[in-house]
Amino acid sequence: LDRTLFYPEGGGQDSDTGMLVQNGKKFDVSRVEKSGDAVIHIIDGKNKISGGKIEGEINWQRRYASMRHHTATHIINASARKVLGNHIWQRGSYLDENEARLDVSHFRRISPEEVRMIEREANSVVMGAKPVVKEWLPIGEAEKKYGMHLYQGGAPKGKILRVVSIPGTEVEACGGTHVDNTAEIGLIKITGTERIQDGVERIKFAAGYKSLEYVQEQEELLRKAAGILNVDTAVLPKTVERFFREWKKLRKQVENLQKDAAAIEVFNGVKIVTQDDMTPSAIKSITSGGKSVVISPGKTEKSAMIRIARSPDVNVDCTTVAVEAGRILGGRGGGRKEVAQAGGPDLDKLDEAKARAIGMVKEQLEKDL
Ligand SMILES: [Zn+2]
Fold it and tell me: Angle at Cα 70 formed by Cα 69 and Cα 73, nearest 5°?
């Protein structure tokens, strides 16, 4: 092709997709790459395009979403600098039609409060409906006019620079695609931050329809969570906190009840406690009392299991007991001498495995006498 509107992958921006049309025949373009001065259009299928007149059509919805995200990247960069300080410098960026991220130099984590300030600043630029000016300038002239600050996206290539500026906000040398006015971007919403390496923070964000989708998804999550608890979203944090507190209290009560309800047999001066479905912490509260062994069977729909644990002052090897119990359950067992576990699919062998475990514990206690 002698010329093209397709944007090749570059500058952190994903390539365009679309189609090439020749004599009514359509060829899907799945990717576009730059190679030297040429722009390579990669088309699907085995069809061959011959010479002659070819029309190109880019997937405009995808391109426009990328333009929004790309222009928003410049604005987020400027807003982060305004909020966090002049040390903010672009270390990398990536964007496609769905999301955008900007990596900036910063010595500590960006706080939730700072995130809100950056969002507020960025959206004030959007609502200011500022023009996005693109101009070609000789490199010397551009540097004299705007300074080295231009090179956020890396060192310049060539003698003529494409300079993209939003007056009063940001100037960068950039070859990507941008909207003409900041108002076209729509809401800019930061969706998260991440520490990607020492001194580099990643800011993830969305713009346009994608930020609307994000806000709607978050709202849906809140609505669902509030629906489960049957409360209004406004009181969700308070309600969750109360439920969590009560759940912890009830769990403690269940553990105490289990302790009381357990079958206890004293054998050679050692308590052998058997009780179904004990939690590890309930087991521990018994074995920490000394001179005790706990055997706790349990089952789910598909598997049976037995936990075996003992206090440090008892000479029983829980591992060998677990291995044998696991064999009976058609599965396996293992662990440490003090705590071990067995599991397997044979649900109807659970009573047999439990009896065998108790028997083995007694054999070992007898030997120890
Ligand atoms: Zn740009």
Answer: 85
